[in-house]
Amino acid sequence: MRKKGLVLKFMSNMALVEDIETGKVFICKLRGKFKEQGIRPIVGDFVEYRHIVGNEGIVENILNRKNELKRPRVANIDQVVIVTSLKRPEVPLKILDRYLVLVENVKIPAVIVLNKCDLLSREEIDVFLSIYSKMYPVFLVSAKNRMGIDKLVEVFKDKVSTMAGMSGVGKSSILNAINPGLSLKVGEISKKLDRGKHTTTVIELLKFDFGGWIADTPGFASLDISEVESEELKNYFPEFSNFLCLYPDCNHIHEPECGIKRAVEDGLIAKSRYESYFEMFHELLEGN
Ligand SMILES: Nc1nc2c(ncn2[C@@H]2O[C@H](COP(=O)(O)OP(=O)(O)OP(=O)(O)O)[C@@H](O)[C@H]2O)c(=O)[nH]1
Ligand SMILES: [Zn+2]
Which of 22, 127, 182, 254 has the CA that lies 20 to 30 A from 119? Predict the structure, then answer.
């Protein structure tokens, strides 16, 4: 009987597949046809598999992917959780805006987590919220004080997520706060699969105790936007869609009667967001 499973890990023609209904994990070989066709499942793939014996099975079919992230290579992501901080380290808003553009470019929903709120004043938090909370879900968190952690559990529950964010913003601390010992839950089966192999570059979906999965490697580490089309960039700033320009194809740079530039002057679009757009637009033009 064919059953549906989720690929947690893939190595040398073996897939670690979690049964969708029972949560049991199986080591699965691949049908020969995959090799012939040059197809391989990737982490996050939903597959049909057949149980053979014990914890062994065989992958029969790979189901269509709804999306696919390149680095790390993961399929069927429900959301990218971008973690940032305004102190220790002070991550510039334009870095957050780059992450947001990269996530918009792959058409996956973005969630923003502002961590280290214990280091911020109410005013600093309010300024941040005034810029981002209309466009994206923003969660105020302190992994240190466990502030906002219960709400984050709801965000991650039953979804396939990846995290993104600069080094030191507290990604590991957050995962540890929402699910202590998460990274140690790799399990015996996975270890068997790894035996004698170099495992450092292999990514894996980790399962939360409360349900849901997270890629063990953060995405968008390079912050490289060169794959974004310069003409598309403006569509990746959701707040721009509220304003009209004289020219429908306006790039909001030098054109007359630009609704976006007017909105920035009127304080309806955050200056920092427009500056991020302006900078990225020119970066993309120069790259072409
Ligand atoms: N004040 C404060 N410090 C925090 C908080 N969360 C994490 N930290 C500290 O920030 C430092 C970095 O946290 P990590 O969880 O390692 O950050 P990371 O994003 O996983 O970093 P990389 O592994 O380099 O990508 C650690 O010293 C944490 O103790 C917080 O909410 N408040
Ligand atoms: Zn315009």
Answer: 182
E strand or H helix at 165, and its extent?
none
Q: Is 166 annotated as a binding residue?
A: yes
SS3 state of residue 29: strand
- Residue 130: which domain range? 68-215
Q: Is the beta carbon of 233 within 6 A of some atom in ligand 1?
A: no
Alpha helices for the chain (secondary structure H): 32-37, 93-105, 122-132, 149-156, 171-178, 187-194, 259-265, 271-287
Instruction: Name the residue with the closest Cα to ligand 1, atom 9.
Output: 170
| 201 and 133 in a common domain | yes
Cβ 144 under 6 angstroms from ligand 1 = yes
Q: Residues 181-205: pLDDT tens digits?
A: 886 444 444 555 555 554 445 789 9
Has residue 50 been placed in a domain? Answer: yes
Residue 226: strand, helix, or coil: coil
Based on the domain organization, do 95 and 46 belong to the same domain?
Answer: no
On whether 148 is known to bind a ligand per the annotation, the reply is no
Average pLDDT over residues 73-79: 97
**CATH code for the domain in which residue 262 is found:** 1.10.40.50
